[in-house]
Design a protein that fits this description.
Elements (H helix, E strand, L loop, with lengths): L2 E7 L19 E2 L7 E7 L2 E7 L10 H22 L1 E2 L14 E3 L6 H18 L2 E8 H5 L5 H12 L5 E8 L9 E6 L9 H16 L4 H12 L7 E2 L1 H31 L3 E2 L9 E3 L6 E3 L44 E4 L2 E4 L3 H6 L7
Parallel strand pairs: 6-7, 7-8
Antiparallel strand pairs: 1-9, 2-4, 3-4, 3-11, 5-10, 8-9, 12-13, 14-15
Helix pairs in contact: 1-7, 2-6, 5-6
């Protein structure tokens, strides 16, 4: 369906063209101690990482990371066509339709010579683009009686008059008999013209048209000068810089958000395999595994959390964990008499009761 390419009025400004086309809460996690929290440790890339929480963090879903990767690929795929749209290569329309240029001056504000000059300007535009421009001038009463806006009138006129989407209709409405200036104008373009009549082109046309009408130029002069302004550049390749800036900003913002969520999923996955530390106040003792070189917290593992090798409980060197023999008990001969030394009781020599005698079955009381 055709759509507006812009317009304006004496009492107001011009307007541009308008294109148309058919949970659950999680437990808070902190990096420093807070009352009511406990220190937990989890391992990532062979290093311990700590956090404080009221309870052990839950692991993220196993589908979270694959989903984020698929979402990123989907977003990139959707964005690619928009990047192609930033560069416009106008293509001339085929002339397989009724391409007769019409100038219907119902207001009779143009002379025959002016119409001939205007037709030449419109023909040049048609040769360049394949789009057929048409000009219509009407009194204000014709559209104000049955339509809320000149845009609606121009739309209805286009649909009834043309059975294609390759025309560009310029409607000018005025009321010279009212005693004061009261004019309006509107452009209506077919959908097939969008590749050529881009927003940049129609904005350039609208600016010249509106400014010259306000400056007192004739309708013929305003329309001719507007086409002279766009004809040299209408078929040039152009870049939509506004769309480029939007895509860069949108892509950068999406990348930041995606990165935060993605790394959060990775951290939550690792935090699901965390362990409570022995204390909240003292710094945990970190030990390096002799087998894999990974670092773990001492005192909470029976096997290395990285490679699974069984850990040997830490022991003090011999002589510190237990006293050397001879200090835990006195040397033989001090705590008891040496073997064979007699203990005199009266006139009877009585062997000393020693562990050795006991083991040999000797009872000193028998002596």
């Amino acid at each position: 369906m055709p759509h507006s390419s812009g317009g304006g009025s004496f009492s107001g400004g011009s307007h541009g063209s308008f294109s148309s086309s058919s949970s659950t809460s999680s437990t808070p996690i902190y990096h420093t101690y807070r009352p009511g929290t406990h220190r937990y440790v989890y391992y990532h890339r062979y290093r311990p990482h700590y956090y404080f929480s009221e309870k052990q963090a839950e692991a993220s879903s196993k589908y979270a990371i694959p989903f984020m990767i698929v979402f990123a690929l989907f977003w990139i795929g959707v964005s690619i066509p928009f990047w192609f749209m930033t560069v416009n290569h106008p293509k001339r329309l085929s002339m397989n339709y009724d391409s007769n240029i019409e100038i219907s001056d119902c207001l009779d504000i143009m002379s025959d010579s002016e119409e001939a000059q205007l037709r030449e300007e419109l023909a040049e535009f048609q040769d360049l683009t394949g789009i057929t421009p048409s000009v219509l001038t009407i009194p204000n009463s014709e559209w104000k009686s049955d339509y809320k806006s000149l845009e609606r009138y121009a739309f209805t006129y286009y649909v009834k008059r043309y059975d294609d989407e390759k025309h560009w209709l310029i409607v000018y409405a005025g009321d010279g008999a009212s005693g004061y200036e009261d004019w309006n104008w509107e452009g209506m373009q077919g959908d097939d013209t969008d590749n050529v009549l881009t927003t940049a082109i129609t904005d350039k046309f609208n600016r010249v048209m509106h400014n010259e009408l306000r400056a007192g130029y004739t309708v013929k002069e305003a329309i001719s000068d507007s086409f002279e302004e766009i004809n040299p550049v209408v078929m040039e390749t152009s870049v939509n810089w506004l769309l480029v800036v939007f895509l860069i900003f949108h892509g950068g913002f999406a990348l930041v958000v995606w990165s935060i969520v993605f790394w959060s999923c990775i951290k939550n996955r690792n935090r699901g395999e965390s362990y409570p530390c022995p204390t909240n106040e003292a710094t945990p003792v970190e030990v390096t595994c002799n087998s894999c070189g990974g670092v773990y917290v001492q005192g909470i593992h029976h096997a290395c959390p990285h490679c699974g090798v069984r850990l040997i409980p830490p022991q003090m060197p011999y002589g510190q964990a237990q006293m050397p023999y001879g200090q835990a008990q006195m040397p033989y001969g001090q705590a008891q008499m040496p073997y064979g030394q007699a203990k005199v009781q009266g006139n009877v020599v009585k062997p000393e009761y020693t562990p050795v005698n006991k083991q040999a079955g000797v009872n000193p009381d028998l002596f």
